[in-house]
Design a protein that fits this description.
heterodimer, A: mainly alpha, elongated, B: mainly beta, 4-stranded antiparallel β-sheet, 2 helices, 12 strands, 12% helix
Chain lengths: 223, 201
């Protein structure tokens, strides 16, 4: 009898766990669900801005500017958008941003494998629903005329969540490498500049906020 | 008592594991503009990016517009071009003039992947949804009813509504930038922007 109680208790734990993993009643694995736009639950909150977000944004912005420089170089013109960004936005000397470039290259190479695996998982997940179509469910006999039920896709695969954690950790590892390369004092100044910069350009999403944020000039930009 | 302790620890472990596994889908937006001190050109970046869980149900899209003294100079849009996780546009100007203001204005979107088709009485169709006219598709043999697509939106981004400072349609039809076709679904997330007063040497 005692074993039976123990079994029941463990089963209860499993049920609770499953509820958390699937998001509880908010994301049913299958079954009828009224069609309605649910209230947003997960939004990026840049205050305080997570380190992995800061460094991912930094590397992506720098990479975009580097591509812009390469685009002009291919046309025979010299631009220095990337270097100007490092120098004027982050107050870095050439030797310092060279160190960050090395870390950035390693990070971007590292996450390309994660991105590729994530794409495979997403492709496999979506392949179960050709063209993205979810089947409509037949209404129960006692349903109202406006019953709108459809099958719901399964929860986010655990491996995909794990890959995201690896990607985030990669950004935090990159931060640590930059700290080691710059030294504590210079790193503190760099990260302060980076945070200040991203606070201006990385806008957190707000519910039902369609208003254009005020655009203020940064002041004169001089060489 | 010993058994109860084990059960309690099992419960704690189960909850901790569940919280670890349950990741959040998130979407980020970025707009920035800068003067290149070498060429005197101004470049603007518009970026929308999703983390992996969000990319399961949506694709990223970004549209950027570059303005000089309030006049639209150039636009571009991107839907990731096969990249599931980020859409980015990078616009630039000709060498800038002294004391000239430049702005980058970015519209951020996600494109839902899953949908279901619903048959609705014509009179009950919403006239507009997210800023778009809902017409529905005629169903042969069922007068008075229309077939409409409803997009699966587990993270609720449709709640941001439609329309934008720069309408998406201003960017559509440009195969050069791979813009969305007009009938493609999208959820508008918001508009961001940055401006500078450029003073090249």
């Amino acid at each position: 009898m005692l074993n039976y109680k123990y079994f029941l208790a463990v089963l209860t734990c499993c049920v609770i766990t499953t509820g958390f993993i699937t998001g509880g009643a908010e994301e049913p694995i299958a079954g009828a669900k009224p069609i309605a736009t649910p209230e947003p639950r997960f939004y990026a909150d840049a205050n305080p801005m997570p380190e992995e977000v800061m460094y991912y944004a930094l590397f992506q912005q720098v990479d975009t500017l580097a591509k812009k420089d390469a685009e002009f170089r291919a046309q025979g013109e010299t631009t220095t958008f990337k270097e100007t960004f490092y120098r004027t936005r982050l107050n870095l000397a050439p030797a310092q941003f060279a160190a960050i470039e090395t870390v950035k290259s390693g990070y971007l190479t590292g996450i390309s494998a994660l991105d590729a695996r994530a794409r495979e998982i997403i492709d496999k997940y979506r392949a179960k629903y050709p063209n993205g179509e979810l089947k409509r469910l037949d209404p129960p006999k006692d349903a109202s005329r406006m019953f709108l039920g459809y099958e719901t896709p399964p929860p986010v695969p655990a491996e995909l969540n794990g890959l995201q954690k690896q990607k985030d950790q990669g950004a935090r590892d990159a931060r640590e490498k930059i700290r080691q390369a710059l030294g504590d004092e210079a790193f503190a100044g760099f990260e302060s500049s980076l945070r200040a910069h991203l606070t201006r350009v990385l806008v957190p999403l707000k519910l039902r906020n369609n208003a254009l944020p005020p655009i203020k000039p940064e002041g004169e930009v001089k060489r | 008592m010993k058994r109860m302790t084990r059960i309690f620890l099992a419960a704690i472990f189960a909850l901790a594991t569940a919280n670890f596994v349950h990741a959040q889908g998130t979407i980020y937006t970025l707009s920035d503009i800068a003067l290149d001190s070498t060429s005197g050109r101004v470049a603007g970046v518009s970026l929308t990016w999703l983390n992996y869980p969000a990319a399961l149900h949506y694709g990223p899209a970004a549209a950027g517009g570059m303005f000089r003294e309030g006049d639209l100079l150039t636009t571009a849009s991107d839907t990731g071009n096969g990249d599931f996780f980020q859409a980015v546009t990078a616009l630039h100007t000709a060498p800038s003039s002294a004391d000239t203001r430049y702005d980058i204005v970015s519209d951020h979107y996600v494109v839902p992947y899953f949908y279901t088709e619903v048959i609705m009485p014509e009179e009950e169709l919403p006239r507009r949804e997210r800023g778009k006219l809902v017409e529905g598709q005629t169903i042969p043999g069922r007068p008075g009813y229309k077939l409409v697509r409803r997009y699966y939106d587990p993270m609720g981004f449709g709640g941001f509504g439609g329309g934008a400072y720069i309408g998406w349609k201003d960017f559509r039809g440009s195969t050069k930038y791979g813009g969305l076709a007009w009938d493609d679904p999208y959820f508008y997330l918001g508009t961001t922007g940055r401006g500078i007063v450029a003073n090249p040497r």
